[in-house]
Amino acid sequence: MEIRNLTNDERKIVKQKGIFSVLEYERDLSVSPYNATAQYFMSKMNVRRRQVVAKLENDSLTMQAGALQWMTGKIDVKTDVKGVGDFLGKVVKGAVTKESAVKPVYAGTGTVVLEPTYKYLLLCDVGEWGANGVTIEDGMFLACEKNVNIGVTARKNISSALLGNEGLFNVNLKGNGIAVLESNVPEEELIEVQLNNEELKIDGRQAVCWSTSLEFTVERTTKTLIGSAASNEGLLNVFRGTGKVLMSPVAPTSSLVAATNSVSAKAGDIKSNAFNAVGGILGGMIGD
């Protein structure tokens, strides 16, 4: 099967690892007069549609439920559920990690294209994070190759959940293969900190992912409440041990990303309402 015009002057492959490629829309030409201005300035600020394209050669991948846009070739789709007990366990894991409970597996030979997103797509080599793998923030997982195991890791103590407004569990990826992560900031802006039996303290939720081998806690800036109040600082996310942390230089902007994702939908509603209004007028004239 031959696929034409998947890439062109406006849609280009900007990165590739393993079976995954990232297709980026330099300009979104599927616009109307109602959203053309917004789409123009979005493209100038690197707010662009991006899609994951996976090429399978007698291979398989696991992805978030509902992430598929289209596929072609001899590809079978199955779930990773092994029974009622396993399903209930996955539902619990999905609830505590804010991920889909069941992640379908696509196996065979062909092309799989995921739904477009305005978020930034990271192609993470899980093997580079060591035997314990990498822990990622909630909602970041999108897809992975077959040799990547998806699990759940618990906080090493409850303080990191209660004090830091975090959950008790996060998704853990380990094995050898590539995983696709959705990020609110581009890869070029992420800061990598390598720890060698050291500690990193972060004021805020800038950590995107970190070595699972690291101990993660939430602590006061100083040893006393008075000292913390005097320093005008509150609680810090603390990572200790040997491993690495990827962190954003700015606070998460998920609300802004959500607003961006709704631009096209709102413009489509406006356009649809306008067409409906015109249709109603014409219908009335014809009826008369």
What are the salient characteristics of this protein?
288 residues, alpha+beta, Double-stranded beta-helix, eight-stranded antiparallel sheet, seven-stranded antiparallel sheet, 15 strands, disordered C terminus
List the helices and strands and how they pair.
Elements: E1 11-17, E2 20-25, H1 36-44, E3 50-63, E4 68-78, H2 84-97, E5 105-114, E6 120-125, E7 134-136, E8 141-145, E9 148-154, H3 159-162, E10 169-175, E11 178-183, E12 191-202, E13 207-211, E14 215-220, H4 225-230, E15 235-247, H5 254-287
Instruction: Report how far apart the termini are.
Output: 53 Å
Q: What's the domain count?
A: 1
CATH topology (fold) name: Double-stranded beta-helix
Number of strands: 15
How large is the count of helical segments?
Answer: 5
Instruction: Specify the structural class.
Output: alpha+beta
- Along the chain, the helix and strand elements come as EEHEEHEEEEEHEEEEEHEH
Polypeptide structure, described:
With 288 residues, this protein is an alpha+beta fold. It has a single domain (11-252), classed as Mitochondrial biogenesis AIM24 (Double-stranded beta-helix, 4-Layer Sandwich). The protein has helices spanning 36-44, 84-97, 159-162, 225-230, 254-287, and strands spanning 11-17, 20-25, 50-63, 68-78, 105-114, 120-125, 134-136, 141-145, 148-154, 169-175, 178-183, 191-202, 207-211, 215-220, 235-247. Strands 1, 2, 3, 4, 5, 6, 8 and 11 form an eight-stranded antiparallel sheet that branches. Strands 7, 9, 10, 12, 13, 14 and 15 form a seven-stranded antiparallel sheet that branches. The longest helix has 34 residues, at 254-287. The radius of gyration is 22 Å and the shape is globular. Mean pLDDT is 80; it is low at 225-232 and 263-288.
